[in-house]
Amino acid sequence: MRKDLFFVVELTIYNMLFPMTNSTKRKLRELKLYRLSRALLVLDKDTILSFTRNRIREFLFKRPFTPMSVKTDKFMKVKKKAESIISYALANIVVATFTERAKTVYSDNIFSYYTFLLQSQRKTKIGVVANDMNIRTYLLNGSFFIYFTDYLRSTSGLGREYSFSIQNLDNGYVIIREKKRMATIVANRIRLQLKTILSREPEKIDIIKQLSSEFMADVLTEFPERRTVVRRALGKNIPPCIAIIMDKATKGVHLEHQERIALATFLIRKGYSDEDIHEFFKKQDDYKRRTTQYHIDWLRRNNYMVYGCKKMKTLGMCFPDQRCVAKNLKNPLQY
Length: 335
Ligand code: SF4
Hints:
single chain, 335 residues, mainly alpha, 3 domains, four-stranded antiparallel beta sheet, 18 helices, 62% helix, elongated, binds iron/sulfur cluster
């Protein structure tokens, strides 16, 4: 592996600063590190985890992320950079398990960080990053020329001053004169890319579950959107583990078998009617009324108990908040 990393490809500081660009992804592919599971096998897992924790802490709690400096031999430089880059991907997948508010704060902070970082770069460098983010751009006489479709795709969510209708155009290209505006557009493209990643269903690998549960109590306290949304609809005393499953269910996110059992047994034990329980499962892509009713009947008939907190933890479905900890809960029903 040392030989592979050392000779096949050289990762640069640029790749480390811009892990989301096409050229970085291409290099990771060349290094055969594009798949997270392989990267975690090949690289130093502890270092990746520590970078990932730092990224999440710093971007979620608004402290600027300082990329590590690399002062070791050439092989180690490549390796450390690869670990730093992989931590970006891993942090994103972990944040995808958080509340909607936490995801928004995270992507907004990344947007601010890259706006600031890009502003401090030369115009030519900003142009390079723009093209590397699929924003077709060229620089002429100090102005950026962005192909109009890419401009439209990259400015979604920015203020009225970025509205396409008021831009200067030249032959299908939008003209941007100020470096600051161009930096904002490229950073916004990074934010939009991130939003897509954060809306995907997280990969079900142990490391994601582990990192997710490490942060979940703080996330639910700081960014409690998920719980309040669900609680508004259902009243109080919904433990975070069940609130998260409910939230996924109401959004139509595919639930795993164990999540379905946890949710259905919880609702049954709390006295919800069959009709109410159906409501939670109606948005599942494989929902069939008869099959769902069969399972509800089976769980009721067999007096099936809600999984205990210990089992929920083993299944990676426990996200305790302060109340869980204070009451030292044994079962979500005690919440
Ligand atoms: S401690 Fe129990 S109630 Fe709290 S989140 Fe974990 S499984 Fe749910």
